[in-house]
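Hello again,

I reread your note about wanting to compare the complex against the isolated chains. To keep things tidy I'm splitting this into two emails, and this first one only covers the full assembly. Below are the input lines as submitted, including protein chains and any nucleic acid or small-molecule components. They are followed by the predicted structure of everything together. The single-chain runs will come separately.
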Amino acid sequence: MRLLTHNMLSCNIKGVTNGFPLRIEVEKSMEKEVDFNIDFLKSIFSKVEWTALVEAARSLGYNDLPEEVVDSSTMLESSDFLKKFHHALLELHLEEGALICPETGRRFPVNKGIPNMLLHEDEV
Amino acid sequence: MSSRPEFQAPPEIFYNDVEARKYTNSSHIQHIQTKLSERALELLALPGDGIPRLLLDIGCGSGLSGESLSESGHHWIGLDISQAMLDVALDREVEGDLVHGDMGQGLGLRTGVIDGAISISAVQWLCNADKSSHEPRLRLKTFFGSLYRSLARGARAVFQVYPESVAQRELITSFAMRAGFSGGVVVDYPHSTKRRKEFLVLTCGPPSVSTALPTGKVEDEESCSDASSDDGDERTVSISERHRPTKKRKLTKKVRGRQWVLQKKEQMRKKGNIVPPDTKYTARKRKARF
Ligand SMILES: C[S@@+](CC[C@H](N)C(=O)[O-])C[C@H]1O[C@@H](n2cnc3c(N)ncnc32)[C@H](O)[C@@H]1O
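Full-complex prediction:
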């Protein structure tokens, strides 16, 4: 699972009001090279929760993202920034581990890169 | 049509290791699913600017549908309830990210982040109650509500389904509309039993010019004659009598009296078929409970 997906996932247990971001527990992570596409990065940027991406990347051992993006239009012209953004968003994978709901602490296991988000009956 | 998979077992059981492989390795299925996915992608009507989007594949299975999205350069997240199907998707090294989940429990996604969604041959599964805790209406409501929230305003969701009945199509559509979607059903090749394909095309947000329904595809040389045949013998084969609304059943009963049956039997005899002889029991009136 890429951090792009992690950045979009949120815990939807009944009654949970703030299921985002899911905390990452890592047993194994991976890197897979992906074609660099500036247009995609620019278009997805506004949808990405930056702080969550920084945290997630850090939990996978990648610390090169800036803490904050103050002036996004300038940053999105910087190829250095775009490369880091690309790498964190699309090339880092969580392979084994878990996603933890920030509100309830519920653990969603991740196996072979697939998070199991199935809810128990009393969570629906 | 009791052979429909969704009548046999819950999806996570029906699509076991054997079935998942059989399904994915069939070149016939590969061909059909690819065609359907390409058409669904077309109906999503994404801007033609060549920018890759973030899409959703609901009931992604082994990734046959998602592959069409990758082919067009898009990123996608696939959701499926069957571990076996997802395992096959992993083996095939699909490019999308996979999530093991149940659409009937709602999509756990942030608000407004998805640029479009497709779902190929999957959503009809929601109409079954596979567990005592399953209430299809509730699951449809939860699903469409969560899908609506996760989509960007103006984004589309396209569902290809083979509705099992008119009632089922209406059930699915009505819950989509209640969630706030606008749109409707697009039918490709409406006059061909084999090629007929239905897509529920939904747009996130109130109706506007941009939500006008695209038109379905039509056969090149199609005879309109069968559209006027109202005795309905071969045109209704896809709708099983059991699931037809009771009102309609009553209506057709009136029309198909003894005279109609005798006429049909005579026609069949002329065609050289073996038909039981006409007796006083032929098309006799039945008690109401029948
Ligand atoms: C006929 S397959 C289609 C798979 C894929 N879209 C394709 O075109 O090849 C239907 C899929 O829907 C999935 N499905 C059924 N009910 C589901 C549910 N409630 N949540 C998620 N997936 C479901 C099944 O597991 C199965 O993989």
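For quick reference: Chain A has one domain: 3-111.

B.
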